[in-house]
Amino acid sequence: MATKTNPLLDPKNQSPASRAVHGGTERSHHGETSEALYLSSGFTYATSEEARMRFKGETEGHIYSRFSNPTVEMFQNRMAGLEGADAARGTATGMAAVTTALMSLVQAGDHVVASRALFGGCRYVVEDFLPRWGVSSTLVDGRDPKNFEAAMRDNTKAVFVESPTNPTIELVDLEAVGKIAKAHGAKFVVDNVFATPIYQSPLELGADLVVYSATKHIDGQGRCLGGVIVGDKELIEGDVHTIIRQTGPSISPFNAWVMLKGLETLGLRVEKMTQNARAVADMLANHPKVERVYYAGHPSHPQYELAQKQMSGGSNMLAFDVKGKQADAYTVADHLALIKISNNLGDAKSIITHPATTTHQRLEEEDRAELGISEKLLRLSVGLEAEGDLLSDLQFALDQI
Hints:
It contains 14 helices and 12 strands. With 401 residues, it is of the alpha/beta class. The strands form 2 sheets. A 7-stranded mixed β-sheet has the order 1-7-6-5-4-2-3, sandwiched between helices. Strands 8-9-12-11-10 form a 5-stranded mixed β-sheet, with helices on one face.
């Protein structure tokens, strides 16, 4: 009887949950169950000729951990498999991933179109940093794909969005914008942090590159900084890799190892966070001291139908306007017990922040108003605490205004 090959040996036949646990693993001769941590800056060669050949690319192998590292490679391969991407590259932070992805696509004289609703650091890169190097940019209201079409130019090389957006949970129709970018010969870059790879697959909707702050849900326990870029092999192994190699925004092997451990429980954590977030959104939507709730998984969201189309879940990120002023928003945040004040997100612990005075404080007041970031807006990253405790915590805090 002929021996059959188990189809699950091919990662393509595994579900995303299984790929998040097993993807990219390469065991040493010791057969370790947990991925090995190669905490090494450099690598040795048996001969000078071997060194020459490796630097020339004539033989495979690692040279220096700024370029590549076995642990980092496992993290990159696992992320690529989880996303259904051809390749991936890890970076030191999420902002390093965003900046590297965009810089890999443009040069002086080019143009970038981006949604106006971006994390403060991302908007700085698009508005302030790229123009220093001769790359112009146009920001548009990302809720309507027609705005992207109207902003495209002959020299537009990249379109950049995040969806859902930080902090007001606006959505961008990724499939529609991806088609517009492709029709104009531009590459489409999507920041998928809020949706997570569990609930949204931008590559399937037309993205060329997807970026993450792995600091957020992928680590998920507030331990390490990291970022990752996934996408087209030619782009990743071309200019993305070159920029990382030559300018050095590389992820450390230790942080990559932490991210590998985080990926093993990513699905479980995000699903529980989302369950909690749905309950919190329902409670806040019916609270007399809450003016408005922003949550992609709640029917009150003005783009709820789009969320249902391109996301398989609402994820754990939401925001809400309290009735009152900044002092009232502060009062709510300051009277929480379990929910901590911090600017991070995607953590096992629930986290709240006041975007107008933290993550988006550098924006002009009129820009914040245009984005709906009012003085009474609070952003909430829902964690893994007991659902009832979170509801009680928020109820107590709201009772104080």
